Amino acid sequence: MTSPSRPVSVHLPAPLVALFPGSPRQLEVPAATVAEMMDALDARWPGMRDRLCDTTPAIRRHINVFVDGARARLDTRLAPGTAVYVMTAVSGG
Amino acid sequence: MAARVLVLVGTRKGAFILESDAERRSWTQRGPFCETWPINHVVADPATGVLYAGGGNEWFGPAVWRSDDRGATWTHSGAGLAYPEGEVPVKAVWSLAVGHGALYAGVEPAGLFRSDDGGRTWTHLSGLRDHPSRADWQPGGGGLILHHVLLHPDDPRRMWVGISTGGVFHTADGGETWEPRNRGTRCDFLPEGQRYPEHGQCVHSLAMAAGLPDRLYQQNHCGMYRSDDGGRHWTSIEAGLPSSFGFPAAVHPRDPATLYLVPLNGDSAGRFVPDGRAAVWRTRDAGESWTPLRDGLPQENAYFGVLRQAMATDGLASAGVYFGTGTGSLYASADEGDHWTGIARHLPPILSVETLVIGD
């Protein structure tokens, strides 16, 4: 096994999906870290990374990415098959 | 083709469009657009009819939205609306300006971007943030925002920006280098003897007189001003007005001596129209004298303000004047301000008003 990027399961929030026609609420993308997951999303829907990440670079302040029940960062590693939940924080609404 | 007038409204919860014919008696309303994002400014490219809406969403960051079909459908992009890694990220777009084949966006924290492809991608004009005064720029009540961009109508290299709180800056080389242009404008919030600095003024609005690109008007946190030399020197025009405080300034589409302001009751008294009575104040002589315009506006129990970008005129023969309140009401006059009518009453807080005349 040489590829570091086996699929993870990504769940996207409705207000994000509304910005990218055709994007689904749930999909699988190859990614070994949250940053790679963002790259994969951006490759499918250009601009999606800018909506979820700022140029610090970091996940936006009012976006939460949960991995295994904990808030993740861009460098959080993702095991194959992991469920990743991208959620809009209540603080930003 | 009979003329149609579009009033483009940016609000805390999306963009809206009011539309009428040249009579401007009855209006239809559409919206909210832009997924109910906070939209700080909506403008039209008069040459193409394309609409642009700039804003920022707390979840998803800054973007400029674009509509090629008068608002029916919108796309968005933030590609390139970014400062270098490590700097405080761009939070929102605050002002848009179209001209000379380019689209400009002023943002928070204050900076200026340019797009040459209709808002799809953006380039930072870093010269402004390289100005040595930047270390002194401070957030005003709305944040550290670049809220006005004025383009010279004939010279694409010249433009002015207004920053709260940094002051007015001018470039003559397309944005590579900038100089502050605040001489004569006051900072009442600084100690006595230091109230006329080179920069740091709290400009609230900038407007360019029709046909006289070097005549600028300014509503400041501390006074109303006119410049006849492109902002090198400013003269107070606040005598005759009920206060020195307000936010918007709108010029007549053809008469360079006509200006509209909405003075409020001061920065520490609620920032309402004075005495609960709404009035737009008009000068026909470049600020020498002022007339309050009240016909059709509420004259008791009115406790609203009008924000920095929330007043505009249209270009029809009898110029229309429009303003939107922080309480979500939109007022219109089809006779240069003499009579007013409410044309929308229950919008979200209104942040900006602009117009587009089609087919005149």
**Spatial order of strands in the largest sheet of chain B:** 3-2-1-28
Biggest β-sheet strands, sense, barrel of chain A: 5 strands, mixed
CATH topology of chain B: Methylamine Dehydrogenase, Chain H
- Please provide the count of β strands of chain B: 28
Largest interface: A-B, 21 and 19 residues
Q: Kindly provide the radius of gyration of chain B, computed on alpha-carbon positions and rounded to a whole number of angstroms.
A: 19 Å
N-C termini distance of chain B = 7 Å
The total of helices of chain B stands at 0
Structure, explained:
The complex is a heterodimer of chains A (93) and B (360). Chain A has 93 residues and is an alpha+beta fold. Chain A is 22% helix and 29% strand. Chain A has helices at 14-17, 34-44, 48-52; strands at residues 7-11, 26-30, 53-54, 58-59, 63-67, 70-71, 83-88. In chain A, strands 2-1-7-5-6 form a 5-stranded mixed sheet, with helices on one face. In chain A, strands 3-4 form a two-stranded antiparallel ribbon. Chain B is an all-beta fold. Chain B is built from no helices and 28 strands. Chain B has one domain (4-358): YVTN repeat-like/Quinoprotein amine dehydrogenase (Methylamine Dehydrogenase, Chain H, 7 Propeller), CATH 2.130.10.10.
